[in-house]
Amino acid sequence: MTGSPSHGRAVLPFVRALGAAGHDVVVACPPDVAPVLDGAPARVEPVLATMASAAEHLGPVVERLGGAPALARLSPTELTTAMLPTLFAGPQVTGSARTLLGLVDVHGKPDLVLRDGGETAGFLVAEHLGVPCVSAPSGAGNVLGPDVVAAALSERRRELGFAEPGDAAALHRWGRLDCMPAAFSLAAPGMAAARAFRQDDEVVRGEVLPGWVAALPAGRPLVVAGLGTAMPMMAGRGGRRAPVDPAAALRTVAAAVSRLDAEVVLATGGLPVDDLDLPAHVHTAAWVPQPLLLQCADLFLTHGGYNGVREAVRHGVPLAVLPQFGDQEHNARRVAELGLGEHCPPDPDGVAEACARLLDGSTRTGVRAAQRAMLALPPVGDAVGALEDLAAGRVAALTP
User: Fold this and answer.
1) Erythromycin biosynthesis protein CIII-like C-terminal domain location, by residue (predicted)?
2) The whole model's pTM is what?
């Protein structure tokens, strides 16, 4: 796994299912993702490169694009496309692949590699060893098409001394996993079709709603708002090479929800809010049990990460998406196209207006249709049999 802890949470249900079925599961991940795996039936190796180390290689990309002034003129989609090859298949992947080969020496050759959708070192090692490799659900996995990283992966193979395959672009030759129904997939055009399973409804075991949430007025709509986990981590690194300003994004969200006629639970991720003049109906917390809270919410105002979108759909909650970076701009467009919510403009007035429209129930029908389709999917536990068939060679690839 790579990326932020949210990537770990997307893979965790599959790790649990495989471990519960008696398989020996070894999880390689960055140190800051390892705590997500606490208690999972797996051996955790916190040895892979972090996303911060990937960002260290973005300097040449910025220079090639014309420096900071040129970056400011790019659309979020153009900026993301320019950064993706380095973030997910840059020089840091060579070191991670060598680390994984070292783990193979310790733990033995795997029968199958399950990687998060933005992790490519595991793909290269699986390809080199001749074992199947499947991408688990993740936001990066929905936009990281083979053509985006083909050239970068060829460079990594040369550095590693790996043979170039006949089809260097076949990043998903063994298939993909997803937790969104096919009719409501967030995948970009041209991505390989995925085998979909219903997400685990309790990622963190034993969660309960805080008492203060249970005591909120029941006669008013409940809005959940938040920025996810990656943006607060950017602030914790002092904003070095961060694609957005987390504090500015939080101020936009806070200003927007302050104008709503609803009770609002605003998850800050630990970012300071002391300087914000918030009305009494906006209740802040550094962290909330989001999947649990969404079960009783009327609207989710989100940055548009994959986990948050699928959690909202799982509980039939409309989405107001204020994208910030990465796959989020793409996800926001897909949410609007699929009738699951609105793609918000980047200003408090526009966000507040979108939220007010959604609270009127204009998209409830579309979200309910997606929820029913998701509930009709087989549970995550059924993925074990599909992966066993792939590992044993009974099928050549996962198909929908």
Assistant:
1) 253-387
2) 0.90
Quick one: pLDDT at residue 239?
A: 43
Residues 177 and 306 placed together within one structural domain of the fold = no
203 is a domain residue: no
> What Cα–Cα distance (Å) separates residue 183 from each residue in 194, 373, 374?
11, 8, 10
Half-sphere exposure of 201 (CA within 13 A, CB side): 13
Cβ atoms of 55 and 241 within 8 Å: the answer is yes
Q: Contact at 8 Å (CB) between 29 and 145?
A: no
Phi, psi torsion values for 321, nearest 5 degrees: -110, 120
Residue 398 maps to a domain: no
Phi/psi at 146 (nearest 5 deg)? -55, -35
**HSE-up (13 A, CA, CB side) for residue 24:** 5
Residue 121 sits in the same domain as residue 217 = no
Given a contact cutoff of 8 angstroms between Cβ atoms, the answer to whether 360 and 381 are in contact is no
Could you tell me if residue 399 is inside a domain?
A: no
Instruction: Give the pLDDT band (50/70/90) at residue 232.
Output: low
Q: How far apart are CA 127 and CA 309, in angstroms?
A: 31
Burial 227-255 (b: 16+ CB within 10 A, else e): bbbbbbbbbeeeeeebbbebbebbbbbbb
Task: Indicate whether 192 and 253 sit together in one domain.
Answer: no
- 176 and 244 together in one domain: no
Rounded CA gap, 354 and 356, in Å?
A: 5
The domain containing residue 254 runs over which residues? 211-375
Among residues 299, 263, 259, 253, the alpha carbon closest in space to that of 283 is found at: 263
pLDDT at residue 300 greater than cutoff 50: yes
Angle between helices 92-107 and 121-129 (to 10 degrees): 50
Q: Are 84 and 55 in contact (CB under 8 A)?
A: no
pLDDT above 70 for 133: yes
Query: Cα–Cα distances in Å, from 16 out to 70, 177, 229?
Result: 45, 15, 22
Asked if 252 and 365 sit in the same domain, the reply is yes
Domain with residue 148: its CATH number is 3.40.50.2000
C-alpha dist (Å) from residue 225 to 171, 250, 355: 35, 10, 11
CA distance 290 to 279: 22
**One domain for residues 369 and 315:** yes
